[in-house]
Design a protein that fits this description.
Elements (H helix, E strand, L loop, with lengths): L12 H9 L2 H11 L5 H8 L3 H14 L2 E7 L5 E6 L1 H4 L2 H14 L10 E4 L5 E2 L17 E4 L9 E2 L7
Antiparallel strand pairs: 1-2, 3-4, 3-5, 5-6
Length: about 160
């Protein structure tokens, strides 16, 4: 999934992480998978990606082990659900870090455009991505919820987690 170079074999863990997660479309697809979208049309509509771009990123994400593809309709044009793996779910703190960084350093013009990361253990908004800034609980797909920018509801929505075997 390299942007310009293949960094998959580099000794530097940041380079290897960028190799897998450094594409903006990958991050946006992950965002929507955490928010509960699983089908191609949902992912396309929610991210704004062109069909060919999304098809390529989904294939790359399957190959990288971030997601699995599960058929929900067989036939001449099969259809698939895309679900997070444990590796994909482990990227949640990366997305939180991006979102929280942007809220601090590039805030939206309107307050309703703010992302809120909510810890489901204590119910408080966290200002950190990996663990709750109030109670210290890990912010995982089992324990975090989002109030997304522009949401018409102030109720935090639990996140979708990985496929469990």
């Amino acid at each position: 999934m390299a942007l310009r170079s293949d960094w998959s074999g580099k000794a530097c863990p940041m380079a290897r992480g960028i190799h897998v997660l450094g594409d903006p479309w990958v991050l946006l697809v992950l965002r929507e998978l955490f928010a509960g979208a699983t089908r191609f049309d949902e992912l396309r509509d929610r991210t704004g990606a062109a069909d060919n771009v999304l098809t390529k990123r989904l294939a790359d994400m399957v190959e990288a082990g971030l997601i699995v593809r599960e058929p929900y309709r067989e036939g001449p044009r099969p259809r698939y659900d895309y679900r997070l793996t444990e590796a994909g779910a482990d990227a949640l703190p990366v997305l939180h870090a991006y979102g929280l960084w942007a809220e601090k350093h590039d805030p939206p013009a309107e307050a309703s455009g703010r992302l809120r990361v909510i810890c489901r253990s204590c119910g408080q908004q966290s200002t950190q991505g990996e663990s709750c800034s109030s109670c210290g609980a890990a912010l995982t797909t089992d324990n975090a919820a989002w109030v997304r920018p522009g949401s018409t509801s102030a109720t935090p929505r639990p996140l979708s987690g990985p496929v469990r075997s």
